[in-house]
Amino acid sequence: MTRGADVPVDVDVVVVGAGQAGLSSAYHLTRAELDHVVLDHAPRPGGAWQFRWPSLTYGKVHGMHALPGMELTGADPMRPSSQVVGEYFAAYEDRFDLRVRRPVDVTAVREGGAGRLRVETSAGIWSARALINATGTWDRPFWPRYRGQETFRGRQVHTANYPGPQEFAGARVIVVGGGTSAVQHLLEIAEVAAETTWVTRRPPVFRDGGFGEAEGRAAVALVDERVRRGLPPQSVVSVTGLPLNEAVRAGLASGVLDRRPVFDRITPAGVAWADGSRVDADVILWATGFRAAVDHLAPLRLREPGGGIRVEGTRAVRDERIHLVGYGPSASTIGANRAGGAAVRDIRRLLNRQRAGAPVTAAPVV
User: Fold this and answer.
1) What residues contact 235, with CB distance under 8 A and at least 6 apart?
2) Sheet holding 278-280, edge to edge
3) Of the chain's two ends, which shows fewer C-beta atoms within 10 Å, N or C?
4) Other CB atoms closer than 10 Å to residue 155's CB: what's the count?
5) For the stretch 282-308, what's the b/e string if a residue is b when 16 or more beta carbons lie within 10 angstroms of its beta carbon?
6) Rounded mean pLDDT of 305-322?
7) Cis before 243? omega within 30
């Protein structure tokens, strides 16, 4: 298919994204012998992992589950996770002949008529009976807004563009956010920075002890409940607490992880609280998370009044042709694997119904 082609190419299923969720889905589609195409806007294999900062070595990764049908073995824990996972994903695509098309930007998914979806991209148009959205969150970093933010004379950086600790040598750094990335940033920046300050909206919760299957199911259930109500999903990690490992214990003991409540405003020189206290800074690092990258689905009007897309399993309630894998409860690596298989089973049933002439539940045409 050539760039700019205006004649749609018919397929059964379009998969958008080639990270963990997209590759898992493609694997199951291939095994089910369903005609499909995988579109990925990244320049090379690796999903969002390829953009992770160099100091995030594989040994520091907060859980990485193998893709279906091929284990990740023998990885050097001291190598950057971007390299380890990128090479693994590339080998996986080659082994199962997944033929990912990249770089391709999906700009819009619309009603295509005759029960089909029109998938508009930078490389042309596809016409699909179903679509698996596996775009994750990395492309939508969340930047909170605070009074005076535009006046800050220093540098503002988000986790999505975090370059590693050496860029902050000798600087006064404020890290904003209460998740795993914030803690990882603080622990390594503190070794080279002149001063670090940690601020969060809520007091951090540290998890001491193991995190077993029962705890995992309970955490996923909390995320799933939000998605079923049509609310924007929270990450699974956000409800599990922060693991209390040796590095975190050392950070707590040294004072690096002494947390302050979030500031009231940003000043030209730093931040200030309502009680009059201030902290001067050269850098504000926003470790404030990401949002689901689903803007290309906007023409289908899938969002609920609460701001999220309501799903049952992986299927969008407002349009059964759309499956969101790696969204909400399936955002973890193991969750994405399971959800990919579940989505394909559901799509097979849908396609069988379509071929038998049954109507589908589709989004309203506006």
Assistant:
1) 179, 223, 289, 331
2) 265-266, 270-272, 278-280
3) C
4) 14
5) bbbbbbbbbebbbebbebbebbeeeeb
6) 93
7) no
Q: Is the pLDDT of residue 62 over 70?
A: no
- 76 burial type by CB count under 10 A (0-12 exposed, 13-18 middle, 19+ buried): exposed
DSSP calls for 282-340: SEEEE---B----GGGGGG--B-TTSSB-EETTEETTEEEEEESSSGGG-SHHHHHHHH
User: What is the pTM for the complete model shown?
Assistant: 0.87
User: So what's the pLDDT on residue 4?
Assistant: 47
Dihedral sign, Cα of residue 179, residue 172, residue 80, residue 207: negative
Q: Which residue has the tokens 């759309």?
A: 322
71 Cβ neighbours under 8 A, 6+ residues apart: none
Look at residue 217 in the predicted model and tell me its pLDDT: 58
Residue 332 in this model has a pLDDT that exceeds 90: no
Angle CA 327–330–336, to nearest 5: 105
CA–CA distance from 330 to each of 69, 74, 141, 166 (Å)?
19, 26, 19, 34
Torsion region of 322: left, alpha or beta (phi above 0 gives left; psi -120 to 50 gives alpha)? beta
H helices within the chain, ranges in order? Answer: 20-31, 81-95, 180-189, 213-228, 246-254, 333-355
Kindly report which listed range (198-202, 310-314, 355-359) carries the lowest average pLDDT score. Answer: 355-359
Instruction: Report residue 353's pLDDT band, with 50, 70 and 90 as the boundaries.
Output: very high
Q: Which of 272, 83, 276, 287 is nearest to 179 (CA)?
A: 287
> 232 pLDDT band (50/70/90 cuts)?
confident
Site of tokens 């940690």 = 198
Integer Cα distance of 177 and 241 in angstroms: 13
- Backbone φ and ψ of 142, nearest 5°: -95, 120
